[in-house]
């Protein structure tokens, strides 16, 4: 992307070709937002001041309230795993590339407990399968449940995912093996 910078009326201006956003050049959208920020009073420009700094994640409060309710069908381990994914997932729509053993070590759980909780969260649509490498499946947060990124990217990420469900649906029964008869 080529851009040129300058000033117009005391407001920095960038001209360039970016991605098309609703029929507008992304560079122009960025300039408009920059101009809006410069016109806002000082208290409106303030950024978040999280303890420890860093990024924040957007989570729907209604979903969170339902998941944490005692009658949600989700266990305390499920909520711990959900919280772990909330605070350890990479930015955007990328999966958390940690084994159940690593997650379990950090949460004080056995890998089998993590697996059960991830399975339940997946059935409920809170976590979704993201990729498989060999026999290992990596999961990510459903963008409708929580998202670490901007609103436009979140809307794009929700285009192909289902809505999370509370209470947690019962898992599908595993197919039974037929006994061999002699």
Number of strands: 8
Q: What is the end-to-end distance?
A: 71 Å
- Low-pLDDT runs of 5+ residues are 1-5, 11-22
Q: Roughly what percent helix?
A: 25-40%
Rg, rounded, reads 22 Å
CA-based shape = globular
Q: What structural class do the secondary elements suggest?
A: alpha+beta
Task: Kindly report the spatial arrangement of strands forming the biggest sheet.
Answer: 1-2
Q: What's the order of the H and E elements? A: EEEEHEHHHHEEEH
Proportion of strand residues: 15-25%
Tell me the major beta sheet.
Answer: 2 strands, antiparallel
Number of helices: 6
Q: Averaging pLDDT over every residue, what do you get?
A: 79
Give the structure's gist in a few sentences:
Helices cover 34% and strands 18% of the residues.
SSE map:
Blueprint: E1 3-8, E2 11-16, E3 20-21, E4 24-25, H1 26-39, E5 58-59, H2 61-67, H3 76-88, H4 100-107, H5 111-123, E6 127-133, E7 136-141, E8 146-147, H6 151-157
Antiparallel strand pairs: 1-2, 3-4, 5-8, 6-7
Helix pairs in contact: 3-5, 4-5
Write structural notes for this entry.
The chain has 182 residues and is α+β, with helices and mostly antiparallel strands. The protein contains 6 helices and 8 strands. A hairpin with a 2-residue loop joins strand 3 and strand 4. The chain is globular. The N terminus is likely disordered.
